[in-house]
Amino acid sequence: MIPGEEASMQDHLLWGRRETLGAFLSAFAAVALVREARGAARSGEAAVRRWLDGQQDIAEALAAGRLSGARWAAEVERLAREVEVPALMAVVNRSEISRAGPPFGNDPQKRLIRFRDAAGQPRRLAYGAALFDFQPHNVITPHGHRHMVSAHLVVAGRFRVRNFDRLGDEGGAMRLRPTRDYVARTGQVSTMCSERDNVHWFVPQGGPATTFDVVISGLDPGAPDHLIQAVDPLRARRRADGTLLAPVIGFAESSRRYTAAI
Ligand SMILES: [Fe+2]
Protein backbone atom coordinates (compact mmCIF):
# COMPACT_ATOMS: atom_id res chain seq x y z
CA MET A 1 0.00 0.00 0.00
CA ILE A 2 1.53 3.29 -0.93
CA PRO A 3 1.56 6.12 1.64
CA GLY A 4 -1.69 7.89 1.81
CA GLU A 5 -3.56 5.04 0.11
CA GLU A 6 -5.01 3.78 3.40
CA ALA A 7 -6.41 7.21 4.19
CA SER A 8 -7.70 7.41 0.64
CA MET A 9 -9.43 4.03 1.01
CA GLN A 10 -10.97 5.12 4.31
CA ASP A 11 -12.14 8.29 2.65
CA HIS A 12 -13.60 6.23 -0.17
CA LEU A 13 -15.40 3.90 2.26
CA LEU A 14 -16.58 6.88 4.28
CA TRP A 15 -17.80 8.69 1.21
CA GLY A 16 -19.37 5.49 -0.01
CA ARG A 17 -21.26 5.24 3.27
CA ARG A 18 -22.14 8.89 3.05
CA GLU A 19 -23.46 8.41 -0.49
CA THR A 20 -25.47 5.39 0.66
CA LEU A 21 -26.80 7.37 3.62
CA GLY A 22 -27.42 10.33 1.30
CA ALA A 23 -29.34 8.15 -1.15
CA PHE A 24 -31.35 6.67 1.73
CA LEU A 25 -32.15 10.11 3.10
CA SER A 26 -33.08 11.34 -0.39
CA ALA A 27 -35.42 8.39 -0.86
CA PHE A 28 -36.81 8.97 2.64
CA ALA A 29 -37.31 12.64 1.86
CA ALA A 30 -38.97 11.77 -1.46
CA VAL A 31 -41.36 9.36 0.27
CA ALA A 32 -42.05 11.97 2.96
CA LEU A 33 -42.69 14.59 0.28
CA VAL A 34 -45.07 12.28 -1.59
CA ARG A 35 -46.89 11.55 1.69
CA GLU A 36 -47.00 15.25 2.49
CA ALA A 37 -48.30 16.04 -1.01
CA ARG A 38 -50.95 13.31 -0.69
CA GLY A 39 -51.86 14.63 2.76
CA ALA A 40 -52.06 18.18 1.40
CA ALA A 41 -54.18 16.97 -1.53
CA ARG A 42 -56.50 15.15 0.90
CA SER A 43 -56.76 18.17 3.18
CA GLY A 44 -57.20 20.39 0.08
CA GLU A 45 -59.98 18.10 -1.11
CA ALA A 46 -61.59 18.11 2.35
CA ALA A 47 -61.46 21.92 2.37
CA VAL A 48 -63.10 22.04 -1.09
CA ARG A 49 -65.81 19.61 0.06
CA ARG A 50 -66.52 21.86 3.06
CA TRP A 51 -66.57 24.81 0.65
CA LEU A 52 -69.11 23.05 -1.59
CA ASP A 53 -71.17 22.33 1.53
CA GLY A 54 -70.97 26.05 2.35
CA GLN A 55 -72.36 26.84 -1.11
CA GLN A 56 -75.12 24.33 -0.44
CA ASP A 57 -76.02 25.92 2.90
CA ILE A 58 -76.39 29.43 1.46
CA ALA A 59 -78.22 28.15 -1.66
CA GLU A 60 -80.76 26.38 0.58
CA ALA A 61 -81.10 29.46 2.80
CA LEU A 62 -81.69 31.66 -0.26
CA ALA A 63 -84.28 29.28 -1.74
CA ALA A 64 -86.07 29.11 1.64
CA GLY A 65 -86.13 32.90 1.95
CA ARG A 66 -83.80 32.95 4.98
CA LEU A 67 -81.18 34.91 2.99
CA SER A 68 -81.80 37.82 0.64
CA GLY A 69 -80.14 37.81 -2.77
CA ALA A 70 -77.74 40.55 -1.65
CA ARG A 71 -76.81 38.59 1.48
CA TRP A 72 -76.31 35.43 -0.58
CA ALA A 73 -73.99 37.38 -2.91
CA ALA A 74 -71.99 38.66 0.08
CA GLU A 75 -71.67 35.09 1.39
CA VAL A 76 -70.49 33.83 -2.02
CA GLU A 77 -67.87 36.58 -2.05
CA ARG A 78 -66.72 35.51 1.42
CA LEU A 79 -66.48 31.89 0.26
CA ALA A 80 -64.49 32.93 -2.81
CA ARG A 81 -61.83 34.42 -0.53
CA GLU A 82 -61.49 31.09 1.28
CA VAL A 83 -61.07 28.63 -1.60
CA GLU A 84 -57.80 27.63 -3.24
CA VAL A 85 -58.59 27.61 -6.97
CA PRO A 86 -56.15 24.75 -7.81
CA ALA A 87 -57.73 22.58 -5.07
CA LEU A 88 -61.22 23.45 -6.32
CA MET A 89 -60.27 22.61 -9.89
CA ALA A 90 -58.70 19.30 -8.78
CA VAL A 91 -62.09 18.31 -7.32
CA VAL A 92 -63.96 19.71 -10.35
CA ASN A 93 -61.76 17.72 -12.71
CA ARG A 94 -62.52 14.51 -10.80
CA SER A 95 -66.26 15.18 -11.11
CA GLU A 96 -68.64 14.29 -13.93
CA ILE A 97 -68.31 17.02 -16.55
CA SER A 98 -70.48 17.17 -19.69
CA ARG A 99 -70.59 19.68 -22.52
CA ALA A 100 -73.83 21.62 -22.64
CA GLY A 101 -74.13 21.66 -26.42
CA PRO A 102 -72.71 24.02 -29.03
CA PRO A 103 -72.54 27.63 -27.86
CA PHE A 104 -74.77 30.31 -29.40
CA GLY A 105 -73.04 33.09 -31.37
CA ASN A 106 -69.89 34.21 -29.58
CA ASP A 107 -70.90 32.61 -26.29
CA PRO A 108 -68.30 30.60 -24.38
CA GLN A 109 -68.52 26.81 -24.20
CA LYS A 110 -70.52 25.73 -21.18
CA ARG A 111 -69.71 22.49 -19.33
CA LEU A 112 -71.99 21.14 -16.62
CA ILE A 113 -70.47 19.74 -13.42
CA ARG A 114 -71.93 16.98 -11.28
CA PHE A 115 -69.97 16.64 -8.05
CA ARG A 116 -69.59 13.28 -6.36
CA ASP A 117 -69.58 12.64 -2.63
CA ALA A 118 -66.77 10.88 -0.75
CA ALA A 119 -68.38 7.52 -1.67
CA GLY A 120 -68.36 8.45 -5.36
CA GLN A 121 -72.12 8.99 -5.61
CA PRO A 122 -73.50 12.05 -7.48
CA ARG A 123 -74.40 14.84 -5.07
CA ARG A 124 -77.86 16.43 -5.11
CA LEU A 125 -77.27 20.13 -4.75
CA ALA A 126 -79.53 23.17 -4.44
CA TYR A 127 -77.38 24.96 -7.02
CA GLY A 128 -76.22 24.28 -10.54
CA ALA A 129 -72.46 24.29 -11.17
CA ALA A 130 -70.82 24.83 -14.54
CA LEU A 131 -67.62 25.91 -16.23
CA PHE A 132 -67.59 28.54 -18.97
CA ASP A 133 -64.56 28.22 -21.23
CA PHE A 134 -63.82 31.43 -23.13
CA GLN A 135 -61.61 31.64 -26.17
CA PRO A 136 -60.38 35.19 -26.74
CA HIS A 137 -63.29 35.98 -29.11
CA ASN A 138 -66.01 34.68 -26.76
CA VAL A 139 -68.18 37.10 -24.80
CA ILE A 140 -71.02 36.89 -22.32
CA THR A 141 -72.89 39.87 -23.71
CA PRO A 142 -74.78 42.25 -21.39
CA HIS A 143 -77.98 40.74 -20.07
CA GLY A 144 -80.35 40.94 -17.14
CA HIS A 145 -81.96 38.18 -15.09
CA ARG A 146 -85.19 37.43 -13.25
CA HIS A 147 -86.01 34.75 -10.65
CA MET A 148 -82.37 33.66 -10.24
CA VAL A 149 -78.93 34.54 -8.91
CA SER A 150 -75.49 33.57 -10.17
CA ALA A 151 -71.81 33.83 -9.30
CA HIS A 152 -68.90 33.59 -11.72
CA LEU A 153 -65.59 32.68 -10.05
CA VAL A 154 -62.59 33.25 -12.31
CA VAL A 155 -60.55 30.01 -12.31
CA ALA A 156 -58.24 30.80 -15.25
CA GLY A 157 -57.20 34.01 -16.99
CA ARG A 158 -58.91 37.33 -16.42
CA PHE A 159 -62.02 39.18 -17.52
CA ARG A 160 -63.27 42.69 -17.93
CA VAL A 161 -66.49 42.64 -15.90
CA ARG A 162 -69.15 45.31 -16.29
CA ASN A 163 -72.25 45.43 -14.08
CA PHE A 164 -75.37 47.54 -13.88
CA ASP A 165 -78.09 47.72 -11.27
CA ARG A 166 -81.48 47.05 -12.84
CA LEU A 167 -83.63 49.80 -11.40
CA GLY A 168 -86.77 48.85 -13.30
CA ASP A 169 -88.29 47.92 -16.63
CA GLU A 170 -89.99 50.47 -18.90
CA GLY A 171 -91.68 49.16 -22.02
CA GLY A 172 -89.04 47.38 -24.06
CA ALA A 173 -86.15 48.75 -22.02
CA MET A 174 -84.38 48.35 -18.69
CA ARG A 175 -83.52 51.31 -16.55
CA LEU A 176 -79.92 50.77 -15.49
CA ARG A 177 -77.26 52.35 -13.31
CA PRO A 178 -73.64 51.46 -14.09
CA THR A 179 -72.06 49.96 -10.95
CA ARG A 180 -68.78 48.19 -11.83
CA ASP A 181 -66.18 48.10 -14.58
CA TYR A 182 -63.02 46.24 -13.56
CA VAL A 183 -60.70 43.39 -14.45
CA ALA A 184 -61.38 40.22 -12.44
CA ARG A 185 -58.41 37.90 -12.06
CA THR A 186 -58.17 34.24 -11.08
CA GLY A 187 -59.71 33.79 -7.64
CA GLN A 188 -62.07 36.79 -7.90
CA VAL A 189 -65.83 36.26 -8.10
CA SER A 190 -68.55 38.32 -9.77
CA THR A 191 -72.06 37.97 -8.34
CA MET A 192 -75.50 39.10 -9.48
CA CYS A 193 -78.92 39.10 -7.86
CA SER A 194 -82.16 41.04 -8.21
CA GLU A 195 -81.10 43.68 -5.68
CA ARG A 196 -77.77 44.61 -7.25
CA ASP A 197 -75.56 44.10 -10.32
CA ASN A 198 -78.42 42.27 -12.06
CA VAL A 199 -76.96 43.01 -15.50
CA HIS A 200 -73.51 41.59 -16.20
CA TRP A 201 -71.10 41.47 -19.16
CA PHE A 202 -67.87 39.42 -19.37
CA VAL A 203 -65.06 39.85 -21.89
CA PRO A 204 -61.84 37.77 -21.52
CA GLN A 205 -58.62 39.77 -21.46
CA GLY A 206 -55.31 38.72 -22.99
CA GLY A 207 -56.14 35.11 -23.90
CA PRO A 208 -58.42 32.23 -22.97
CA ALA A 209 -60.13 32.35 -19.59
CA THR A 210 -62.56 30.22 -17.58
CA THR A 211 -65.19 30.82 -14.92
CA PHE A 212 -66.69 28.39 -12.41
CA ASP A 213 -70.34 29.29 -12.06
CA VAL A 214 -72.93 28.73 -9.39
CA VAL A 215 -76.55 29.31 -10.39
CA ILE A 216 -79.73 29.13 -8.32
CA SER A 217 -82.98 29.58 -10.21
CA GLY A 218 -86.69 29.10 -9.51
CA LEU A 219 -86.53 31.65 -6.69
CA ASP A 220 -89.96 33.22 -7.26
CA PRO A 221 -92.86 30.82 -6.67
CA GLY A 222 -95.42 30.90 -9.47
CA ALA A 223 -92.98 32.61 -11.85
CA PRO A 224 -90.92 30.97 -14.59
CA ASP A 225 -87.74 29.20 -13.43
CA HIS A 226 -85.67 32.07 -14.82
CA LEU A 227 -85.75 34.81 -17.44
CA ILE A 228 -82.64 36.13 -19.18
CA GLN A 229 -82.82 39.13 -21.53
CA ALA A 230 -80.08 40.73 -23.58
CA VAL A 231 -79.84 44.48 -23.17
CA ASP A 232 -77.99 47.21 -25.06
CA PRO A 233 -76.37 49.66 -22.61
CA LEU A 234 -74.18 51.25 -25.31
CA ARG A 235 -77.29 52.51 -27.16
CA ALA A 236 -79.12 53.59 -24.04
CA ARG A 237 -80.72 56.99 -23.58
CA ARG A 238 -79.06 58.75 -20.67
CA ARG A 239 -81.42 60.51 -18.29
CA ALA A 240 -80.74 63.63 -16.28
CA ASP A 241 -80.28 61.55 -13.10
CA GLY A 242 -77.45 59.59 -14.77
CA THR A 243 -79.46 56.40 -15.23
CA LEU A 244 -79.65 54.64 -18.59
CA LEU A 245 -82.74 53.54 -20.47
CA ALA A 246 -81.27 50.58 -22.35
CA PRO A 247 -83.30 48.72 -24.99
CA VAL A 248 -83.92 45.01 -24.59
CA ILE A 249 -82.59 43.27 -27.72
CA GLY A 250 -82.46 39.73 -29.07
CA PHE A 251 -79.43 37.53 -28.37
CA ALA A 252 -78.54 37.30 -32.08
CA GLU A 253 -78.30 41.08 -32.29
CA SER A 254 -76.48 41.17 -28.95
CA SER A 255 -73.85 38.69 -30.22
CA ARG A 256 -73.36 40.75 -33.39
CA ARG A 257 -72.99 44.05 -31.56
CA TYR A 258 -71.12 43.01 -28.43
CA THR A 259 -67.93 41.39 -29.69
CA ALA A 260 -64.73 40.90 -27.68
CA ALA A 261 -63.39 44.14 -29.19
CA ILE A 262 -65.86 46.23 -27.13
FE1 LIG B 1 -76.03 35.87 -16.60
Describe the structure.
The chain is an alpha+beta fold. The chain has a domain of 163 residues: Jelly Rolls. It is built from four helices and 13 strands. The strands form two sheets. The protein has a six-stranded antiparallel β-sheet with strand order 1-2-3-10-5-8, covered by helices on one side. A six-stranded antiparallel beta barrel has the order 4-9-6-7-13-11. Helix 1 packs antiparallel against helix 2 and helix 1 packs across helix 3. The protein is elongated, with a radius of gyration of 26 Å. The N and C termini lie far apart (85 Å). The relative contact order is 0.15. The site of fe (ii) ion (FE2) has 4 residues, from strand 4.
* Number of helices in the DSSP assignment: 4
**Count of strand segments:** 13
Annotated CATH homologous superfamily of the domain at 95-257: Jelly Rolls
Identify every distinct bound molecule in the structure, by name, code or SMILES.
Answer: fe (ii) ion
- Poorly predicted segments: 1-5
**What is the averaged pLDDT score?**
90
As for the CATH topology of the domain at 95-257, it is Jelly Rolls
**Structural class category:** alpha+beta
Distance N to C terminus: 85 Å
Characterize the main sheet.
6 strands, antiparallel
CATH architecture of the domain at 95-257: Sandwich
Radius of gyration: 26 Å
CATH class of the domain at 95-257: Mainly Beta
Helix content: 25-40%
Order of helices and strands: HHHEEEEEEEEEEEEEH
Q: Strands of the biggest beta sheet: in what spatial order?
A: 1-2-3-10-5-8
What form results from the Cα inertia axes?
elongated
What portion of residues belong to β-strands?
A: 25-35%
